[in-house]
Amino acid sequence: MKKIKLLLAISVVAGTLSAQNPKVNNAFNYLRKGNLSKAKDAIDEASEHQDTKDAAKTWFYKGNIYLAISASADPEVNGLDTAALEKSYEYYQKSITIDKEISNDMLNISNPFDGIKMVANIWFIKGRKYFDEKNFYRAYYCYNKSYEYTNPKDDNAAYMAAICGINYDNTRDMKKDTISLAKETKSYLVGLTNRGFKDEFIYSTLANLYMTDKDTTKAVSVANKAEKQFPDSSNTLLLKLSVYYWAGKTADANVLRETIKGKYTKNPLVFFNMGNILEKTNFEESEKAFLMAIDLNPTYFDAIFNLGALYFNKYVDIKKNASNIKDDAEYTKAIEKSKEYITKARPYVEKCYAMNAQDYNTLFMLKLIYANSNELEKVKEMDALLLKIKK
In this structure, are residues 310 and 279 in contact, taking their beta carbons and an 8 Å threshold? Predict the structure, then answer.
């Protein structure tokens, strides 16, 4: 009698299993036929039933079905679950935790590991779409997902996430957008530089972020890492020069400056960038650098303009400091000295005007020069031109 009862119990269990296994098999068949609505219904039921909810096959198939839903070009199919792509990753992961060897060669995605790679790739493609649309926040989210889902981690996804984070923070409306991606961006940049990713931009960006944070040690460290990665790059050497001056490593910076000047004697862009780096810390060397850039390229608009601006700013600084001088003779001497620099500035800015009469910054700078020289008619002329450009 006991044996009969045992056989009856086994038959009940077998009946239950056979009732549920078809749900998994039906889901598989519906998936292969492209009937994703029925495939979803079948696999959802199987994944909740006591007898099949712990089977690796159930979750592997569910991952494939939800991935197919997310990738469908049919809006109705997409609407079956708007979070299908995120969920497919979770389902693949769950199948792996149950059985790492689960697979089915009859499916295009024959194992959950390939499924996860596909999920990551789709997120990357989505990121590119949003990036091209300049929707940097959404692009960042997609690239971040792509990076999160890859193993080993994909540095290309990390790089694009960082680029999106930088662009988003640079273009967001500070009054409206409360979210900043600076912290996450910095984390990506740190990881990329630690892994020796070959792109100079990430080193310069990270160094600038550290300078903004006033973290001298890390800024110098990144500049030195950059030089090891790109020892023959003028951009990297200029980055290091900028960081060294900023960090107060003046002696080392001066030696590096002379090295750069000797190495790139015929490159006006190098001298232009050097002039920009030095303008706040070493007026004389900045002046020399801009003059060298212009000497190498007499029609170098940006170098000509920046030299004029350097002289004009020097004029403003001297005049501002003169207001604190109480001695009349010293005050007069300072004012006369300031006039030397506005006189120097004028021909360079006027040359820029001759080269491009529609450049707003040039017109505005000339207006300031004429205003400080009491040439009111010329000020009116510049105002009229500026008004036309604004319109």
Answer: yes
User: Is the pLDDT assigned to residue 351 strictly greater than 60?
Assistant: yes
**Rounded Cα distance, 151 and 126, in Å:** 19
pLDDT at 15: 38
pLDDT of the residue at 207: 95
Q: Could you give the percent of the chain with pLDDT greater than 70?
A: 95
Hey, how many other C-beta atoms are within 10 angstroms of the C-beta on 187? 15
Contact 115, 71 (CB under 8 A): no
pLDDT value at position 281? Answer: 87
Contact 67, 78 (CB under 8 A): no
Q: What angle is formed at CA 109 by the lines to CA 76 and CA 41, rounded to 5 degrees?
A: 40
Length of the chain equals 391
Is the entire prediction scored with pTM above 0.85?
Answer: no
User: And the tokens for 320?
Assistant: 């501002």
HSE toward the beta carbon, residue 306, CA cutoff 13 A:
26
Let me know: does 307 contact 275? Beta carbons within 8 Å.
yes
Residue type, 229: Q
- What is the average pLDDT across 10-33? 64
Respond yes or no on whether the N-terminal peptide bond of residue 112 is cis (omega within 30° of 0).
no
The set of residues, in sequence order, having a beta carbon less than 8 Å from that of 205 and lying 6+ positions away, is 162, 166, 189
- 391 pLDDT band, cuts 50/70/90, is low
Check residue 109 and give left, alpha or beta (phi > 0: left; psi -120 to 50: alpha): beta
Query: 266: Cβ–Cβ under 8 A, 6 or more apart, which residues?
Result: 296
Per-residue pLDDT, 276: 96
| pLDDT higher than threshold 60 for residue 75 | yes
The larger pLDDT score, comparing residue 151 to residue 251, is at 251
For residues 181-186, average pLDDT: 91
Angle, helix 234-246 to helix 268-278, in steps of 10 degrees: 10
Residue that has been written with the tokens 């269990």 in this structure: 13
Our measurement of the distance from residue 291's CA atom to the centroid of its chain's CA atoms, rounded to an integer in Å, reads 34
For the chain, the 3-state helix, strand and coil shares in percent, each to the nearest 5, are: 75, 0, 25
Q: CB under 8 Å to 322, separation ≥6 — which residues? A: 331, 334, 335, 338
Amino acid residing at 378: K
**What span, in angstroms and rounded, lies between the C-alpha atoms of 321 and 136?**
44
Rounded (10°) CA dihedral 49, 51, 56, 58: -40
